[in-house]
Amino acid sequence: DQQVKQNSPSLSVQEGRISILNCDYTNSMFDYFLWYKKYPAEGPTFLISISSIKDKNEDGRFTVFLNKSAKHLSLHIVPSQPGDSAVYFCAASRAGGTSYGKLTFGQGTILTVHP
Amino acid sequence: KAGVTQTPRYLIKTRGQQVTLSCSPISGHRSVSWYQQTPGQGLQFLFEYFSETQRNKGNFPGRFSGRQFSNSRSEMNVSTLELGDSALYLCASSLGGSGSEKLFFGSGTQLSVL
């Protein structure tokens, strides 16, 4: 039961253009969402997060949009740089209750930014 | 501030053996979580510890266990290793482990079971 889905296994973008990574979730109890970036043989690095009370959060070149009614979020990277090439994971959790330490991850999207 | 430290980085074991992995969280972080990453299943939550108590557990067999010490350092143990246990094991820490906190991950331990 894949509760968090990233339907695009890969994305290729030209340097300087916008990268848009998408993520869908099925569990309506999720109310906190995060994006992580990961290089091979390393742990995921936190990029940006958003609470369900917001629909947008920005941090520098990274913006996350949340559409609760569609259970969809997206990560925009503008402008894209070759150093952004990595695997991007979407993750979700429940802010309250017993979700201690538990993030539910998507399968990841490989982003390649060409010079 | 030092990040999350995991040891060892690489480990090779044979079927039937057991293995212990170690994790030191970021200073001041009291919650430690463990994840397994495989090509087929992605990143899967194993368990979470806070103040030496397991508060949350994922859907893994009892061969997977863990513990946390009074200094918040954590270990996870896998007994009777199977080929399918080959994976990258990641440790993550946070202040309190609530569902609205970001997790900081270590570089992982790459376990190969032969």
Task: Give a description of the structure.
The complex is a heterodimer of chains A (115) and B (114). In chain A, strand 6 and strand 7 form a beta hairpin. Chain A has 115 residues and is mainly β. In chain A, strands 2, 4, 5, 9, 10 and 11 form a 6-stranded mixed sheet that branches. A 5-stranded antiparallel sheet of chain A has the order 1-3-8-7-6, with no helix packed on it. Chain A is globular. Chain A is built from no helices and 11 strands. In chain B, strands 2, 4, 5, 6, 9, 10 and 11 form a 7-stranded mixed sheet that branches. In chain B, a hairpin with a 5-residue loop joins strand 7 and strand 8. The radius of gyration of chain B is 13 Å and the shape is globular. Chain B has 114 residues and is mainly beta. At the A-B interface, strand 4, strand 5, strand 9 and strand 10 of A face strand 4, strand 5, strand 9 and strand 10 of B.
How are the elements arranged and paired?
The complex is a heterodimer of chains A (115) and B (114).
Chain A: E1 4-5, E2 10-14, E3 19-25, E4 32-38, E5 45-51, E6 56-59, E7 62-67, E8 72-77, E9 86-93, E10 104-105, E11 109-114
Chain B: E1 5-7, E2 10-13, E3 19-24, E4 31-38, E5 42-50, E6 53-57, E7 64-68, E8 74-78, E9 87-94, E10 104-105, E11 109-113
Parallel strand pairs in B: 2-11
Antiparallel strand pairs in B: 1-3, 3-8, 4-5, 4-9, 5-6, 7-8, 9-10, 9-11
